[in-house]
Amino acid sequence: MPYKDPQRKKEWERLHRPQRLERRRELRSVQAAEQVTRPRTTAEASSGIGFLVPLVAGGALAAYNPKIGMGAGGLTLVAAAIWKKSWTWWFVGCVTLLIALLFYFTENKEKDKQTGSGAQV
C-alpha cells in the first residue's frame, strides 16, 4: 500500500494530484449549492415575540408561588450563562426573578402587618 512507504506515498500523491484537486472543487461546489437551496432553520426564522410566552409563564409562576418563581428565574439565568444564550434568555430570567422577589417581599410585609411581628420603635 502506498501509505506505508513514505516515498511511494509522495509519488502516488504527485501522480494523483489533478484528480484530488478536481474532487475537492466538485465537493466545494456541491456544498455551496446545498447551502443556497437549504431553507433556514426554525431558530433563525423565529420572530422576536417568542420570548413573551416564557415571560408571561414566569410572571404567573412568580405570582402563584414566589419561591418557585425565584428558582425558575435563577435557573434561567444560570442556563443563559452556562450555554451562552441570547439576550432574551437573560431578559426572561431577570424579569421572572424580579417579579418573584416583588411578590415575595410584598407577601412577607402583609404577613408582618397581620401578625404584628414588625419591629416597633
Task: Output the keywords.
single chain; 0% strand; elongated; 121 residues; 79% helix; mainly alpha
What would you say this structure looks like, in words?
This protein is an all-alpha fold. It has two domains: 1-38; 49-113. It has helices at residues 6-37, 42-45, 52-64, 66-82, 87-115. Helix 3 (52-64) runs antiparallel to helix 4 (66-82) and helix 3 (52-64) runs parallel beside helix 5. It is elongated. The model has no long low-confidence stretch (mean pLDDT 83).
Quick rundown:
With 121 residues, the chain is an all-alpha fold. It is built from five helices and no strands.
Task: Outline the fold blueprint.
Layout: H1 6-37, H2 42-45, H3 52-64, H4 66-82, H5 87-115
Helix pairs in contact: 3-4, 3-5, 4-5
Number of domains: 2
The overall average pLDDT, rounded, is 83
Largest sheet: none
Radius of gyration: 30 Å
Distance between the termini: 94 Å
